[in-house]
Fold this sequence. Notes:
Helix content is 14%, strand content 45%. By secondary structure, the chain is mainly beta.
Amino acid sequence: MEIERKWLVEPGAIPYDLSTLTALEIEQAYVSFSPVVRIRKINRGEKHILTVKKLTTYGGLAAGESEHEIDGELYAFLLKQASGNVIAKTRYLHPLPSGLTEEIDVFSGQLKGLAYLEIEFPDVEQAKQYPSPDWVKADVTYDRRYKNSALALEGIPEGAF
């Protein structure tokens, strides 16, 4: 199960020098939206991942998730079956002293200007109690419009900037 909080951030307000962090170039597309079936190409084909997600009763905070590494040929085939827009983003990994990792996603292409902070948690209670960092714009964990699958279908939500 993936347990994750998500915050909208202004790229200029990120308090880290992103060039010093580990970065992953991610291209992702959606083969299905119910259930969510996502494919990802990481670092221009270094790795390909197929993910199936199902939301749980926590309203967007947690999702059942199954990930499988696939080869580039299957990725290319599934990409032809995808619906909506292909999402392009750079994910920067910022380890925290607590052992958690901040994942800062900076989008490009049709989602340019949009940026998120995401943190995965070991349990729902810790996720609920975690305070929002003071540099974020808004907690969008429970806002469906900010799910990547919604971005692929609908683009940047009105009022995001």
